[in-house]
Amino acid sequence: HTPRSEAVSKSIWSELLQLTAEYKAVNLGQGFPDFPLVSFAQEALSNAVNGGFHMHQYTRGHGHLPLVKILAKFFGRILGRDIHPTEDILVTMGAYQAIFYAVQALVYEDDEVIILEPSYHCYEPMTLMAGGKPVHVPLKPQKVTGRTVSSADWVFSSEELTSKFNSQTKVIIINNPSNPLGKVFQREELQMIADLCIKHDVICISDEVYELLTYDGAQHIKIATFPGMWERTVTIGTAGKIFGVTGWKVGWAIGPRHILDHMQKIHQNSVQHCPTPTQEAVAVCFQREFDTFGTEESFFTQQLMLLQAKRLRLTECLRSIGLQPFVPDGGYFIVTDISTLKVDLDEPNTKDEPYDYRFVKWLIKEKGLSTIPVSAFCTPEHRADFQNYIRICFVKDDSTLKATEDILRKWK
Ligand code: PMP
Ligand code: GLN
């Protein structure tokens, strides 16, 4: 047998993180807030850590009870159905692990897994490590004239998607709102995916880590709410993105117990327990948000206003040097076409690298700005199709955005 890890190629993340540190570049690469967390979250964690001795011992393996109870209440209200706190939910080390478990539970040798491209970078390696075959369907920007370009311009062809479903198809992984594009799927797009899942008996893994971050009134719709879809959907979330605490690594999967049961067994035989204090703190934060949901006091409402302003600031900054960023409807990132800048990077020994990889490295070294190449979110064979775009994180402190503006202003 070939080792499982051989199926997956080296990721560009560590190389870029290292380069960013080495050149002390302004970091708009990795998706995390570089400003202090909200005080109630800090307090919740501090109270948990300073709580009774039991806060420092194992808690319930499939999820700290106060956390699964409030997750069931919070997401039950959004889903419009009763969620069983212990049977329909599993708490994991971040969304990453929940996706890994879902793929391990559902995908077997030669099963096909449909992935929309560009997509979050772990879906393909996780599929390969489970023995499955990734089947890619590209999202392509439609040529739209006369209005601002937005993440909604990136669409899949319905004929192409339909043609990829067959008797080997086991799973489709969607990411809504998406990373890197910030695409929030329209009802019709989700309906088409749901119809195909039902027709071909396919399970949907729906990565919704940015579900509470949609801008300018864009509406996030959960595919699990479509008729016939609860039974065949695993919805993934993380406190990292919901409360801006990526280092806590508290994630979860919510879905029907016939699937969750497999995932719980995999968890039981790999990690078994997630840390107690962070789960307790997330439970307290969710209770606060459950009670204030939709009011001005809600952190979610305040966070949206803050992030919307940052998104606008960075968009305008990019436009000032002649770029045309795709304004995202949701999430943490802005994708922009870089080909219009016409930066000539034909260094002889790097020609086999996609243009965006070379551009991003050049941007770190020459301009002191760190971003992520969009082709890193595509399978190696398709990288050339997506090599004219970079991803920029706007969930950054005003001082970071100011430093970015200074760099871009000098560029003009
Ligand atoms: N899915 C997507 C789309 C993400 O952007 C991220 C990173 N926030 C994850 C999953 C992983 O989340 P976590 O850090 O909670 O594992
Ligand atoms: N989800 C984060 C991002 O997309 C972190 C990814 C990572 O560290 N590999 O930036």
UniProtKB/TrEMBL annotation:
Keyword set includes Transferase: yes
Domain Aminotransferase class I/classII large: 25-401
Annotated signal peptide: none
Coiled coil: none
Entry's transmembrane regions: none
Pathway: Amino-acid degradation; L-kynurenine degradation; kynurenate from L-kynurenine: step 1/2
Keywords annotated in UniProt: Aminotransferase, Pyridoxal phosphate, Transferase
GO biological process, any: kynurenine metabolic process
GO cellular component: mitochondrion
Source organism superkingdom: Eukaryota
Gene Ontology molecular function terms on file: cysteine-S-conjugate beta-lyase activity; kynurenine-glyoxylate transaminase activity; kynurenine-oxoglutarate transaminase activity; pyridoxal phosphate binding
Pfam families: Aminotran_1_2
Enzyme Commission number(s): 2.6.1.63, 2.6.1.7, 4.4.1.13
Cofactors demanded by this protein: pyridoxal 5'-phosphate
Catalytic activity: an S-substituted L-cysteine + H2O = a thiol + pyruvate + NH4(+); L-kynurenine + glyoxylate = kynurenate + glycine + H2O; L-kynurenine + 2-oxoglutarate = kynurenate + L-glutamate + H2O; 3-hydroxy-L-kynurenine + glyoxylate = xanthurenate + glycine + H2O
Primary role: Catalyzes the irreversible transamination of the L-tryptophan metabolite L-kynurenine to form kynurenic acid (KA), an intermediate in the tryptophan catabolic pathway which is also a broad spectrum antagonist of the three ionotropic excitatory amino acid receptors among others. May catalyze the beta-elimination of S-conjugates and Se-conjugates of L-(seleno)cysteine, resulting in the cleavage of the C-S or C-Se bond.
Subunit structure: Homodimer.
Family note: Belongs to the class-I pyridoxal-phosphate-dependent aminotransferase family.
Record-given protein name: Kynurenine--oxoglutarate transaminase 3
